[in-house]
Amino acid sequence: MRFGHIVKPALLVCLFLIVAYFVVHYFKKVHEDTATVSAWVVPEPVNRTRSCGALLAHGEICEDSFGTRRLRPQGCFMQDYTAPTPLTARCLESLADRSPQQNVRIVLMGDSRLRQLQHHINWLITGNWTDIDNEKGVRVRRPGSLVCDPPWKDSDDKIRSGQCNLTLSTPNLNFTVQRLWDPMIAPDRAPFTLTNMLNINDSSELPNIVIINSGAWLLKWCHDNNLTSEACQTEHRKIIFAIKPLLKRLSALTTVIWMPQTVVNRAFATLFLTHEKNGLISIFNDMATTLLADTNVRFWWSSHQAYERFNDTRDGIHQGPRTLLHNAQVVVNYLCNAVVSPPNSNYCCI
Questions:
Q1: Would the pLDDT of 193 be above 60?
Q2: Fewest CB atoms within 10 Å of the CB: 36, 163, 242, 269?
């Protein structure tokens, strides 16, 4: 009787432990299976420096409440900005009050991928789509001088004369997004452009954000000049060294973001790229990361991830609509969150 009195409770305890083990294992497996496509989970609060970095770093693919797959920063949330809204207006008003020029300015310096981004940033903040005649409400064709993509024969002349630059200003919102067209960040032009940015009387007059990219059109130049892959890498190194001292000074005064290039999808557009040359893009990105490591230049890896994950390019070269919307939202979140988000919220960059 005494032995049975001991055995029965022991069996019950063992049975409970076995059941508990399988329950825990089951829920752990469910969590692992849904890690990449999960519901929005409130992250731990993080400081501004780290959460701003999270906007630019690799994120995670999640599913929002509408079932749409989105790329979310790790550790914080993104706001959804769409103009015209009080949120966007409050952001611009707060930022303009801090500037002697009473103007919020974003500068993009690079190629056609940044040309795309310019229009989407302007649309998110102002509500104006720059390919639409806002008075007549009809689509308008942009003049060729605003495109300037190589291999146009006169593209170099247009770049030198400034015809390829485009400034979109919205005076009633004190907002400007400026494009400085320089698809190769050429050593004979880019240092002059960056020096002009630095030659101001007050650092608070600098752009709020400067975004730069380089590399894709260098590959065409290498192809046209019959350069080997090794020689092409040398040219890219020269480009970075030519602007590094200026980027170091500029990034100490304002936010400078380097947008890594993405490979050309050769299923859509083979262009001038061999498989070997296309592979240089990742080498260029790594080279820029290494050579600029001792500056405050920030690398925007989430833009690269969005391009690859959403895979919505329509021509094999440029960003598709979902990629563009995500990237424009990242820029506006970086610009605005600190001045519009509640201080104890889990939004990035607060």
A1: yes
A2: 36
